[in-house]
Design goal:
- By secondary structure, this protein is α+β, with helices and mostly antiparallel strands.
- The protein has seven helices and five strands; from the N terminus they run H-E-E-H-E-H-E-E-H-H-H-H.
- A five-stranded antiparallel beta sheet has the order 1-2-5-4-3.
Length: about 140
């Protein structure tokens, strides 16, 4: 973006709340968007979903059952406000939520997405379902 700006181009604006944060430690930590506290502070009425790694067959098969996926949505519009993950390979998994933020994905979009099974990425789907009381694997 900066290079395009210096070259006199018209770069797209960067939305800081749509850039992933990744911490390469054990377990890995990744997030994008607003935290639950920040969303409330900004005046959103929110829905929050959680899904533990222990509920995911692939995480268990990998020997990595510790972790959590948390999603935050605007209860009124369904907009994905934030996602936070702790566990195996979450620095790879967060990109799904980054794309979701960039494309202004809603919980309905994510609920209607078919995730491959068995994968770690399907926990994204389960966390969304939990936010709306529809979780099936817990």
């Amino acid at each position: 973006m900066v290079a395009e700006l210096i070259a006199g181009e018209h770069p797209h604006p960067v939305r800081p709340e749509s850039i992933a944060g990744c911490t390469y430690c054990y377990p890995q930590v990744a997030s994008v968007g607003f935290t639950e506290a920040k969303a409330k502070e900004l005046g959103y009425d929110i829905k929050v979903g959680h899904f533990p790694f222990i509920g995911n067959g692939k995480a268990i098969a990998l020997g990595e059952p510790e972790g959590l996926v948390k999603t935050i949505f605007d209860a009124k519009t369904g907009e994905l406000l934030g996602a936070h993950m702790v566990g195996a390979e979450v620095t790879e998994l967060i990109q799904g939520y980054v794309v979701g933020r960039q494309l202004e994905t809603t919980e309905e979009d994510l609920m209607n997405t078919v995730f491959p099974h068995p994968t770690l990425s399907e926990m994204m789907h389960e966390s969304v379902l939990d936010a709306y009381g529809r979780v099936i694997h817990m």
